[in-house]
Amino acid sequence: MVSKKHKNIKQIFMLFFILVCCTSCKANNPIIYTDTIKVSISDTEYSPSIWTVNSGDNITLHLMNTGTKNHNWSIIGRPISTPFSDEDKQNIWFNASVNAGETKEIIFTSPNGPGEYKVLSIIDDHYEEGLIGKLIVIHADEVNSLLSESQE
């Protein structure tokens, strides 16, 4: 049986984690996530570069490459080396490529495991040049349940 003190500590930790993960949200509600990601890719950055999604959801990804080079948007499931190597390719969880000047829409299922995932372009040396982002995956039902409990 879990003590009330232990439960409260767990709730405080989860709330702190959620608030840290959602600091880029622009609304007052800290539990903001989306099922549509719109990304503009230049030759030097993703804009925006941080996205929050619910675990296991179908996500519509809109990629617009405004750069002069081909790029991709790859979710990395494990730590990788710098520079990105052929051995790191096994750590790609999802990959979508878009040619220079092209716009593309792809649907993918977000990771089931909550956490922070690196998103980067693995073409040539784009990762090393700073073409990197972050995908934050949450379990929205669990988060909302914890928030409801903490407000009681």
Task: Please provide a written account of the structure.
- The chain has 2 helices and 9 strands, in the order H-E-E-E-E-E-E-E-E-E-H.
- The strands form 2 sheets. Strands 3-9-8-5-6 form a 5-stranded mixed beta sheet, with no helix packed on it.
- The chain is an alpha+beta fold and 152 residues long.
- It is globular.
- It has a single domain, classed as Immunoglobulin-like (Sandwich).
- The chain is 19% helix and 36% strand.
- Helix 1 crosses helix 2 (140-150).
- A hairpin with a 4-residue loop joins strand 1 and strand 2.
- The longest helix has 18 residues, at 4-21.
- It has helices spanning 4-21, 140-150; strands at 36-41, 46-47, 50-54, 58-65, 71-76, 92-98, 103-109, 115-120, 132-138.
Which features would summarize this protein structure in a list?
152 residues, alpha+beta, Immunoglobulin-like, 5-stranded mixed sheet, 9 strands
Secondary structure blueprint with pairings:
Blueprint lengths: L3 H18 L14 E6 L4 E2 L2 E5 L3 E8 L5 E6 L15 E7 L4 E7 L5 E6 L11 E7 L1 H11 L2
Parallel strand pairs: 1-4, 3-9
Antiparallel strand pairs: 1-2, 4-7, 5-6, 5-8, 8-9
Specify the biggest β-sheet: 5 strands, mixed
- The overall pLDDT average reads 79
Named at the architecture level, the CATH assignment is Sandwich
Number of strands: 9
Question: Would you identify the CATH H-level superfamily?
Answer: Cupredoxins -  blue copper proteins
End-to-end separation: 21 Å
Q: Which fold name is given in CATH as the topology?
A: Immunoglobulin-like
Residue fraction in strands: 35-45%
Briefly note the structural class of the backbone: alpha+beta
In DSSP terms (H or I, runs of 4 or more residues), the helix count works out at 2
Order of helix and strand elements from N to C terminus: HEEEEEEEEEH
